[in-house]
Amino acid sequence: MPRGSGGAGPGAGPDGGAEGLLSSLKRAAAALRDAGVEYALAGGFAAYAHGAAVSTHDVDFVVRERDVPAALDALAGAGMRHLESPENWLEKACDGEQPIDLIHTPSGRPVDGELLGRAEEMTVGAVRMPVLPATELVIMRLLAFTETTCDFSGFLHVSRALREQVDWPRVAAETAESPYAYAYLTLLARLGVIGPDVL
């Protein structure tokens, strides 16, 4: 059962941590919806909606690159400010101290209508919104592994929590060119999270 309607983790105060991020997530989602910007929740909170542990890092949305200006305008209209980002695959906003990422080209793969069309309407913090499916979340995360960002530990609990919802053969096929994704899937197989036939 999705965990998105649950409370924040221990020690999260009303102005920070998981509760503060969840409040900002709901405000941002409402602003994007009201502005007619097509989006989907991604990252840690999307995994949370599917049953993983709550994220306390940031809020991630995927949008088409052409819709980024409208998305930033919508967030500004809700009192959020635009932050300059050194990365060329996302734009950043901030709701008070809460960071919000608008991702348009994750791992060099532009967000398009096909990806957004696969989003599932789910309840996150008592609010209905489009959320990327578990399979898309795993593909996106595995393709983000590189030689300098190859710490698997943070994603292992997510993989365990979502494993029944993930199309692992599709994950293997779409990440086949990445040696880091292959290494991660090999680790999952050795740990018994996925079957050895996936590789």
TrEMBL record:
Record-annotated Rhodanese domain positions: 27-55
Pfam families found in the cross-reference section: NTP_transf_5
Gene3D superfamilies registered for this protein in UniProt: 3.30.460.40
Listed InterPro entries: NT_sf, NTP_transf_5, Rhodanese-like_dom
The protein, known as: Rhodanese domain-containing protein
